[in-house]
Structure formats: C-alpha cells, structure tokens
Automatic annotation (TrEMBL):
Protein name as it appears in the record: Reverse transcriptase domain-containing protein
SUPFAM superfamilies: DNA/RNA polymerases
Reverse transcriptase domain segment(s): 1-164
Pfam families in the record: RVT_1
InterPro entries (alphabetical): DNA/RNA_pol_sf, RT_dom
C-alpha cells in the first residue's frame, strides 16, 4: 500500500525530502511567514471508514498506475477492511481490541493515516500556500503574508477537528 504515498502531494517520506522542498521555495523581498503544527493523536482519531473511503478513491483514480498484485480494487478494499477489523493489541498481559482509530504499530497505519489526512487537508491546499507538506501528522506551511498564514492555519485547525 506504500504505493499510495506518491499520489498524496503533501506527503514527505523523510527529512531530506523536507529540506529539498524548503530549498526549492523562492523567497521574494517581502519574505515568508511559516508555521509548523501537529495533528493531535492522529492515529486514534482516524475514522476507519473515512480512511477506507479515501484509499478507495485513490485506488479508483490511479488503479492503472498501481500494482495490486492481481487483485481488483474491490478485493483490495475487502482485505483492507478485514485488516482493520483485527486491531488487537496486548497491554499489561491482556489482549484488547481497538474499536476506534488505527493501532500504533500496525503496518497499514501510516499509509491509512497519510491517505486519510490527504482528504482532510484538501481545503487547505485549495488556498495555494507557497509550501505545504506533511510527514504523517507533522505539518509545515509557508505563506507570503501573516493573514494568508492565518487563513491556512484556520483550515489546518478545521482539518484537525475533522480528524478527531
């Protein structure tokens, strides 16, 4: 499922990618205003059904560019859904089933969180900040003015609220 990352424009795979994006930003004489923020408790606040919907949309849109290993989009979605039903973890010697959100350590969790956030942050990207990028739940935005940054910040707050 990591193939989906390439269809999320704001996704950063690592620190070097972030530094490259920063180097590519052209700063005019008025400068830039920037902010970083964290999506609070992203994994536990991801709606599994909305994450699956976001994945489904990307799979449908880009199915010819993806290797689904002989599976159809529907079969892939069924497998993803089954995996999310098995959110079992061990704590203090007892097993528990997580009924809300993504389980930390689950191999699918980062992909689902990134794809989920791509749908949530879409209104912010429509504001066309000079730079917006994200590594899972750590976001960075740069705008030419404080008022534009405030507007993007408000969109980011709305996105964070939607994720809760």
């Amino acid at each position: 499922m990591v193939q989906l990352f390439k269809f999320v424009p704001s996704h950063l795979p690592n620190t070097n990618a972030f530094l490259e994006k920063l180097r590519s930003v052209r700063v005019d004489e008025d400068g830039l205003v920037f902010e970083s923020f964290d999506v609070t408790a992203l994994y536990t606040n991801v709606s599994n059904s909305e994450a699956l919907q976001a994945v489904h949309e990307i799979l449908l849109e880009h199915q010819t560019d993806l290797n689904l290993y002989g599976l159809s989009v529907g079969q892939t979605m069924s497998l993803l859904s089954e995996c999310l039903m098995c959110n079992v973890f061990k704590w203090a010697g007892q097993y528990f089933k997580q009924i809300r959100g993504l389980a930390m350590g689950q191999r699918l969790a980062p992909v689902l969180a990134v794809v989920f956030m791509s749908k949530i942050e879409a209104p912010l990207l429509l504001r066309h900040p000079i730079l917006y990028c994200r590594y899972i739940d750590d976001c960075f935005v740069a705008c030419p003015t404080q008022s534009e940054l405030d507007t993007c910040s408000d969109e980011g707050d709305n996105a964070e609220t939607l994720a809760e």
